[in-house]
Amino acid sequence: MAAPAARRIVGAEVPIPGSDKLRWIDLTVPSSPSPAPASPSDPFVCVPPRAASGCHIILSGDSQYYLCWRIYEEHQNVLEVIELCASKEFPSSGLRLVFQEALCPFAFLCEREGRRRGELVYLLYVLTVSGVALLCHLRSPFSYVSGSILHQDDIVEFNLQTHAQSAKVTAVTAKPGCLVIGRQDGSICSYSLGKLAPDSPAFLNELRDDAGIGRLWTLMSRTKAVGPVQDIVATVVNERDLLFVLHSDGNLRIWDNHKKLLNYNVCSNDVDGHPSRLWVGESDDDEETISLAVLHQNTVVQDCDHVAVYGFNFSAGERFLFSSEPSISTIPLLEGKLVDMKIGTDKLWILKEFGSMFYETLQYDFDTEKIFSYVLQEDAISEQLFQSSDNSLDDLVWTADSMFSSFKEQAFNFISSMFLRRLLQPGVNNCSALRETLYEHKKFLSDSEIQSLTANGLQKEILSIIEQEGSSQTASATVYHWKKFSARYLHNWCLNNRPYGLLLDTNNEVFGLIRKGSFSLFRCLESVEMLIYGSSDELRSLDGLGMDFLLDDISDFELLDEVLRCMGHIHHLLGRSSTAIYYESLISSVISSDEIASQIIKMLETGFSPQSSSSLITLLGMDTYVERRQAAHKSQRKFSVEMLLSFHKLQSRSTSWSAVFDVIEKFMKCLNTNITVQEHESKRVCNVNSMLMVQATSQVARTMFECAFDLFLFLSYLVGVGGQVSLLQSDVARIKLKLFPMIQDILGQWIVLHFVGITPTSPSTIRDFSYQLSSLQLGKADELPLHRKLGCSDFTLACLLDFPKSPGGDVLSPCFPSPAEIINLVRMFSSSIMSGSNVEYVQTFLGSTLNLSAVLVRNGQYEAAQSLLGILETYLNHEEVSQAGQDADIACSAYLHLYGFCLLMLAYDEANLILRESKVHDAIRCFFRAASGHEAPKALQKLSLETGFQVSGECRSISLWRLHYYEWAMQIFEQHSMSEGACQFALAALEQVDIIVDVYNGNEAEGLPETATMIKGRLWANVFKYSLDLKHFRDAYCAIDSNPDDDSKYVCLRRFIIVLCELGETKVLCNGEIPFTDLVEKVEQELFWKAERSDLSSRPNLYKVLYSFEAYRNNWRKAAAYMYRYFVRLNREGNAGGSHQLSHTLQERLHALSAAINALQLVDPSFAWLDSVCEADDQISPSKRPRNLLMENSAFGTDSELSRLQFCVDVEILEKEYTLTEAQYMLSTVKSTYKFSESQSVEALMDVLINENLYDLAFTIVLKFWKESGMKRELEHVFSSIAQQCCPNRAGKSGRNLTDSQQLLLLPSSEDDAWDINTKSIAVAHQLQGSCNWETLELYLEKYKDLHPRLPVIVAETLLYTDPEIELPLWLVQMFKTNKSGNKTISWGMSGKEADPAALFRLYINYGRHAEATNLLVEYLESFASSRPVDVLHRKKMSAAWFPYTAIERLWCRLEEMQSAGHNVDQCDRLKKLLHGAQMSHLQQVVVDSEDVLSSVGGGGGQGMESQSS
């Protein structure tokens, strides 16, 4: 028994992207009820339940299909079937068959014979645990409807328990047309299921040793019966169907139909353990050999299972014979249990499980008897998510604060971007695992919802979880929470992707793995990967490493070995976190990669030095913090010592450091992508093979990048400790000037390859119809599926590239590639990417990266192209590269052009306004910098397909080329609604036109497509348009004024006015911000033309704009004319609406009239008039007949006034119109039922106003329209009406509270565009004091009695007439008793003006108010008699007092008449007595006064005369 060699890693698992996103078609398989259902404790089929899987290869013409199936351990009644084709896309759906009971862990799939052409029908053989064998006919492609039931005609069913032989089934297998079972009694039965009818004699074929006479002989000899069948394998050897049967007693038997070819006992060898499973490899018909493998399970000692490999020779003659002494090789499994095994002609592949969720894939070579290992996805994902050890991620937690000490604000976004990029890359991203992880964090999303999310959508969902953890405080906290999330995700990934079995295609040497949730293949390692994963002893064994032509002798091997050991020390100290951070700094450009590199090198030299221990103590705990700190210090000291020892070894083994650097240079040639110009045919495809190649390329690229970065850190550390290891200045110069640029170039190549391999494409954004039309890719049917896949998380950027085709490998092959072919395809693909260039004269990393960016731009992947160009920018910024001359200049121009275009496209889709503006500014800057290069025309001539910039013909000068470039940039910014950039490039193009004209001394240049004037006119018109879009109105006007083309200028001016009106920015025209100079008249004409042709309801109101326009220039007469024109149009057109619109129209009329009045009042009185409306009509519409618009629309006015309005309109007429309009408006606000009509008179309007209690307006109309007697007449009419409303019998028409806010009036400003006028905001010019009709009457009477003194008489008479029983109010009576100054006139009798006490006395008499009349007379008589001493002399003068004696006489007669008629006899008698007594007293007083006067004249005349004169 040979001992296995050390397990060297020779390959890695490559997952097939998209295999976790299958949409399952659930199909129920009906079956008859079993007569003897299987008992869970004692099933009829005794095959132990387990997760099972398999792959069957179907050849169909030029295509080859891989039918993969799997049975879940937790769902034994469910069988999943997936049909794979290497030359087609990964299927979007699979078939999930749901059976009525649990299945035996077995299935066999094959193609049905005799099918029609173009039809694929598969046969599926399964066996239930109750012994029911099923044969299902499945259509391909799977066109079933999910949730349906498989048709009964497609099912063949046979119950094994119904047969006479009812021993339990212990093993099962199948071959086309036949199901083979092994029973507990050792018998083997073959059933022609689906081929023959069950009642056919040939349906059952039983294989036994005791058939016929042999059976009788066995019974007589009593030989030992064969043991239960343990396993059965059906295979074809030299075109003969054979059965290999393993029994539990160790007997291995080979059958050919009814004939036993071999009986060999595998327990006869020195192999411990019980034989349990059997595998048969492909036969070598030429060598006539075949290999078998038997698993021996040790039932005594745990983890001591063995696999015995038997090599049998056979003779394929007439008698098919097998050798009875095979070759034997034993492979100890050491630990773990075997999950699956596949055997080939010279190799054996083993899948083992260690405990829970730990697996290992081994390869055993029959010739060398060595065991090799493969890297599984579990290990790769652990490394990707920093979960491979307990220290690597903790190192990142430990070092995060110190590494990001200068970038605390960017730390959270940077770290999150790093984790998200790794988490969501193909091969790591798994829908089921992600869904379960999100579910654990209270994010409830279904598989379909997760699959429908784009990469950005998934990032947002995950990032929200980390933000909720509060991890944005410190960098270490951010890393800590990401660690927890990644750990849970890795756990769920392992649960959902457990390996079920191996996949093997021996004809094509294809080796893969079937997992619970995905599929994958294995690849060989690249030579550098073998160095990294291998040991130092293997370095000297150069077989297969491809380095024998690079290293000269053994000393070079030793030096390289020591260099690799130093790189290992660095990698062990820093883990993978430093490489990940440096990688992210190159991609995201959030933090400078040079800053990150310096921080990492600083940590190598000085060790970890956390800036703040508090956050680490909070996260890790004090004990763990102290332990980590001590371990970090110890590791740093160990690292320093080991590095110094290695440096001394390098010095001792080499003559100088130059020899070491020579070896490093040779090693870097292996790290390079070997850029060579490939002549292979290439084609863009998207199939399983291409996706595999992309995934494998990203794996190799990541390993290469990490190795190159470790080498960079090694050289940087060497420079830092150069003084301690005798490093010369020339050596330092060589490192910095030669080795560092080479490493930067290698890092750039591999990071680009890795980036395009893992970065998902972005979905195409739908911009406009032209973009959608171009995206249809008419005539390119092959590219349509690719555009549909944009945005899928597993469709990466590399899938958009062309894939090479050569004899060494072809992605269009119908077969899966072998491990060696995969790595060959990776080399070809990497070389083809890095050798392509569209930039002339640039065939380096610069050119290939630019070409790759151009391809991404062509496919709309602007964000990815921006990241690639960011990497290129880092490369260009290095001092060594910046001195590269013409190539660098060409590359720089192309880079800036593409980078600006990407920024422009990204800005168009950016929702954040601040970021959008920033990207636009950066894009403008990039385009200007791209055009400034002297090699720009050469650099951009091959990028027309990507960006659309193309110059037809040859430009004679750089200025002419820049003119075309700036015009293109202007157009591209305009297409994406970015007027700021378009404006800048239009101005830049104008500058180039001036330069070109200056060069030709003012003559027209030959290269210009148009005249300079035409170009300038067009460009200035564009500048105007862009400035207008930006609302830079002053700049827009300046562009109009600068335009040399008059036609274009006036078109722009008209557009300027139209846009200002649409935007409501007409104040720009009126506030003097723009000096219109010689365009004032043109602006006025355009405004007036637009005003006349605009609807009156349009906003802004252009008549008001014209008013403001003229008012600013003190043209008050024109301003008044425009507002009056507005009033005329309102009269003519504004009455079409309802009452609500009518109210607004009337208010607008008021505003127009008030503005016109105010403007005319500022004009010299001799010019304060307006042209007649008819003349204005002639100017407005010359083709129409002149009309007197004012006459037609004036509802009220005299004939003489209307005749004047035909010629001119002055302030007085405007004021009258204002008054009438105000009256109409107030009536509309109180919802009056009054209907306006041209036939109505002012008097009728007055009546309506009085009825609506609008007295102020009524009085205003009276004062405006009547003078002198007419005015008095109308005042009497108004007051009469008011007085009538005060009478009690008119209480139903009680007065309205005139101080109500509804009576307020406020004219709107020119800025008021709202139609919904709140009448409560209207102000009254004269607020009325009082809350009732009496108070109203008193107020107005006090106000207007001076204009017409007889008004109190009219009021009193109206009151007495209206209500004979009314008692006149005291204030009204006092108006009769007092003079103008407010003094009573009682002492001088009842004489006065029109409203005197005598008039009141007469009114009393006229209306039968005899008591009031008597009392009034008695009051005045007594007052006359009781004059003050100072008034006695005056009383005694001649005619000093007067009383209405005639009226008194009438009163006396009235009293007598009433008394005679018998009415109020007593009252009349009392009044007569009172009146008689008062008169007698008055007459006596008059007699006395007369005598006094006579006596004074006779006796003291001189004194009397003197007194009188005084």
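That was protein one. Protein two is written in the same sequence-then-structure order:
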Amino acid sequence: MERVLAEALLSQSQDPRGLLRALCVWEPPPSAERVETLRFLLQRLEEQQEGGGGTSAGPAAPLLQEAVREVAAGHLVPLLRSLRARRAGATDGDPSGPRDRRRRVLRAAGGALRSCARLAGGPQLAAGLADEALLDLLGRRPAAGPEEEEARAAPGQRGGLGIEEAVEVLVAVAPCLRPCEDRALLERVARAALAVALGDEENEEPGADEGAAALVAGRLLPAVGRSSAVALRALWDGLVPPEQEAEKEEPESGRWGPVPHEPRVARLLLVLSALAERLLPIPGTGGAWGAPEEEGPEAWRSPRFWRAVQAGLVHTDGLTRKRARYLLQRAVEASAGRGAECSCGARDANEPNLFWWSDKKKEQLLKFWENYILIMETLEGNQIHVIKPVLPKLDSLFDYAVSEEKECWLLHPSWHMCIYKRMFESENKTLTKEGIIHFLELYETKGLPGAPGFSEFIIGPLMEALSESSLYGRSPGHKIGTCSPLGMKLQTFLVTYVSLLSEDVKSSFLLKFIKKMTSRHWCAVPILFLSRALAHIPPCKVLGVEGLLALRDVLQCTMITHQILLRGAAQCYLLQTAMNLIDVEKVSFSDVSNFLMSLRQEESLGRGTTLWTELCDWLRINENYFEEVSSCIGFSGRCSLNVYVQNLVQDYIKSSTMETGGNCFMPDWYEAKLVALMILLAADVEEMKNKYSERKKTQNELKAALHPLMDVLMKLGTNVYIPLLKTDRCLQLLLKLLQMCSLKGSLTPDDGVLTLLQNSVMSTTESISEFIVRRLTTNELSTVSDLERCHLYLTMLSELVNLHGKFGRKNSDSIWRFIALLKNASMLHLQNLNSEKEPKLGVQIQKVVSMACLAVVCRIFSQKSDLHLDALDTGILEKFISSFHLNQIMRKPHAEEQNSLFEESSSSQGWGRVVAQYIHDQWLCLSFLLNKYHTLIPAIESEMEPFLHVVPKPVDILQAALEALTILPSDQVVPVFHCMKILVPKLLYSSESLCIESFDMAWKVIYSLSNTQLIFWSNLKAFVQFVFDIGVLTIAARIKGQAYSKIKEIIYKIIEMSTTKTGVLNILISYCCRSWIVPPSADLVLSQDPFSSARDYIELVIESCVFGTVFRRDQRLIQDVHAFIENLGHECAANVVTENTNRDDHYVRVCAIKFLCLLDGSNISHKMFIEDLAIKLLDKKPVLKQALTVVLQWCFNHNFSVRLYALLALKKIWAMCKTLHVEEFDALTAIIESSLHQVENMHGAGNAKKNWQRIQEHFFFATFHPLKDYSLETIFYTLPRLSELVEDEWITIGKFIKFNDIPIDSEFQWYLSQTELRELKPSDWSQQDIGSNSVEGDNQLEWIDVQKKMIPWKNNVPDLDLDLVFQDRAAKFGKSISRLIVVASLIDKPTNLGGLCRTCEIFGASALVVGSLHYINDKQFQHLSVSAEQWLPLVEVKPLQLVDYLQKKKTEGYTTIGVEQTAKSSDLTEYCFPEKSLLLLGNEREGIPANLIQHLDVCVEIPQHGIIRSLNVHVSGALLIWEYTRQQIIKQRDAK
């Protein structure tokens, strides 16, 4: 049409100049049609000139040339300037129509300028226009040099071109520039284009000037690259400067990409994709010049090019990855087309080439790259069912990449690492896990040669991926308690990989690996399995002091988690790692001791454990090889462990003499712990050496080590001039020695070390006790900092009492004498200090100290209940305690005269904690008193008088307890709970409301602690013991008042809390069941039938019986790992030294079931309880009649399988009815037996007959016997396993045996099944897919089983300019064009719009019209569209604007088609779509409104044959879009 129009105009005018002048007369803004007509005319004149229509010489006549230059300079350039001004004045809310019209004018003006430059008769016009446009383009970005600085002012002075206009001018005139004469200008244009496209290198903002970069890359760079080889070389030199290209090594910026910032990678690939046709020309596709002035650049020989491609393949942006894949495919096709040998060397000369090509191995290389690109393309889907078949095929890439001799890599392994890194960073965690496991299996299954960069890849992307906890979950088929599959793979891989490394590389790799474990906050599970993998590396001396410090840093990372067992296990593994990998000649005893201090003895390194034994053995073997010691006083050089420890103790004792007197802060406990640990280690090492010789030598060595300490301790009671710091340090060391020896797991029979230590301490008891009592009772503690010292003294005193208790009463008279002195002095102090009017710091501190002393004395008396307390005159203590003013707030002291700034700073620090400690100790004393006399406290207040001299009124105490709960911090309320436990049963009759208030207040405290770990469990136990005391439960149930309802309410609150915090319900059910079975003796007076409360609170037992695993995914993972660690038993020291908390949710059901098993069926009370429980659990009587009724109903179910199962169940039940002679069903005999007969005699070999036979082989019908298999194992393990319930529901018999809080009689025989049921496996039809392999075609040469969700490569060039008009884009990419417009403005669901967007893009619709462009930012839209919105023009037309939009499109020649069922609608199978079709889709619910139907040319409906009369709008639209596309394809085929 355009050619015809131009011919018509020229034929009617003798002078083309007149036509040009006429067309250049326009009113601003000019119409697009006029400018396009001008372009058509100029193009026709250009064709006439090229075809000989002009003079014989070829150039246009001078007059025409003059006119053309006038059109360019006088009309077209001003027009472009006006477009910039008009765009600057437009707003974002302008409709798309004006923007499209402006774009048409711009493109038409650019085409006209191109023709003017060619008709002008010389290069001057093209060069001038290019120079002017270049200045305007440079004005759009910061100046980078003097050349650009000069160009800065010009555009502003003359109202220059905008960036779009400047780009359009340069695109138009660049082909007209001469390669030689205009070389400098071409290079300037190339540099300017690259500057805009790549952006500022220092600007890391990914969105900076994205629009300008896309415009320049999409329009200008291809035009410049096509213009000449000179321009292309200038562009390439700008991308890869010659000096970089010549370098063999690139800067150290990582092996997985040459550019440090992702935005730079994205921009670089944007530019490379735009120039791909010229940089990577394919012979026969027009990618090269006919006679180039010089040879073009060869991108495939540039390491920087390949590093950019690799960086793009793993980029976070999907479009950047697509460009990288396009460049890779293009490079492979170009290499195959050229057929010449080529290679690109890597950074290291010893590494294989990054890329190479040989025509001799063309087939193998093509196959490799085809498979490689297919894998990368498939990974974009993030759908595991699509990707799964590809993963086994990944192995074939290694077959191509490794030489047949398996000695070297043919292709650089970084290409394979790109695949793995892409999998590691996938949003689909299943895919991430598959990728990690596949990578970890490489060295085990492939036997690969050493690969450059593997170590960096392991420490980088692999470890980043391994930090995700969810990857370590159990896989289907793995039993609870087994090691995580990923954990096992990681262990095997690390052991194999490290064994292949040389010693120097091994040392460097392991050090980096360990340091990586400290570079981030790792969760408990990943750091546990990484530590486990390290611990299994075979012993090798590769780490020195730096490695030991790195391991210590990892130990600090383990302390972050609150999972004590996991934390302890990780510490065990890290210690084993240190023993296996440390080169002892590079570390000293001091380094080792500091490392061991990072371990917690109560969690891992407990004395007596296997880990402790391994450590002692390691020290024994390497004792003489450690590095020289230089820190001990008076000694340097190599030494034995005993010599080191003796000097360490002397150094520890002597360093405290530097103290100059006066009060000071308590010394840190670190040194005391370290010295105590090393003393015990040295003693055990010595005992291990003398195991088969004299033990006396071990005792002598230990005595020598302890001598400086015992010497000071012996003088404590008599020498008052010993420095305070020295006494503190000695007591700290002694206390730590005693505590370490008494830890769980440390007590072993015939422990000579412990015996010697205890005997030594016994000899110093009197001296230590005298010193402690003197310090506590003579007002020597007067500052807040002295309270820590008070705690040390009292703890030491308690340890001495416990120690004397083990040696018998005859040796403990002296210690009790000091206890009596402490008791009396503390009471005297408190009596005297209460008379003080003005509080002073020293006085108040002594008051707190005295109360703490009384609390410890009371605790000692409570623990030593076998003592004759009358001999200690406890009556005075009891009267004194009864006179307490509970919850007395100690006023903050006034400032006294201070001797130093130190005293000022410590006088009032933490005063709130001081007061809280004072009140806490008051309640400890009162708890002792109430425990002693709780049987004498009457339930009625009027009977209290005879006991007032001993116990205050219970009501007053309970009211004070409620007040204490509001005052004390949460970690100090346990003594208050203990007091309330005694008081509430006494007051429940008379003061029920007060007791209910105490329940509520206590629950608030517990609930507030639910997010903590350290103090929650101890407080919860105290709360349960208080509220669910057997006396409280019995009385509350007896009176059936509000307290009874409140207790049940708390039960359900605890159950609710247990759904989010595992282990909560365990504590409650355990305590209650033990109370109901064996109640405390004192409660027998209160209730002769403690079991009665079980009947009253049967809801607790019911909920416990049906309590299931309620873990969230992260909690389930923690439980699985817990089970794995526990199954290791004594092999893991953490199991020995940590307390078994029984927080497994299975424990709830186990506890309830074991409680029920202890009930006696002959006991009427027990029998009634069990019957009531069964009724409430089943909610129906488990009788035969009920079973038959239910089964008969199922026999009429509409589901075929259900009917078959029901009929088989009916067969078994009916057989039992006939055996038992149930007469109630005689009337049904004929019906049931005829039905069963018909089923048994089914004819044919159809599915019904096969299924009937198969179902009868099911274990439940064939093997299971309700009576013979009646056992705990059958109910809780065998049946769930055979029924293929989730493994979390299986409870093994081992758990019933392990949880021994409720012991069962040894004669109890209901544990094990007696039949072959235990040996059965799950049913056949459940296993039919287990053995099948979804990728059986793994060995096939062709990948016919892989979904290829991608566009063919010839149409797969990534979009470089998202703002291009669709026609220009299609012309550039060779994509088929349709004239179909899909209007979806009435659709409001993002999912439907996203699917339509994807469908429109796939079938090449020209545009998709939506009601709002905001939809494209919706996650649901993006999930369905899979980036189609980036490749399809989207137009915003609101529903209210649809009428105008439809009318406008009609004027443009479009046929408007509605998808609707109307009286006159056409059948889709019979309708012929015009080329220019507009498809209007209706709303999901209301369809197309009536007011719009009248504006449509035709309505089309889809023929339907079902009952439902409507399809989803996306499905409907897709059907019509495909039908339109199908008809257009047929028309095009017929036209050819």
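The CA atoms of residues 611 and 1182 lie 54 Å apart. Keep this in mind for the problem set.
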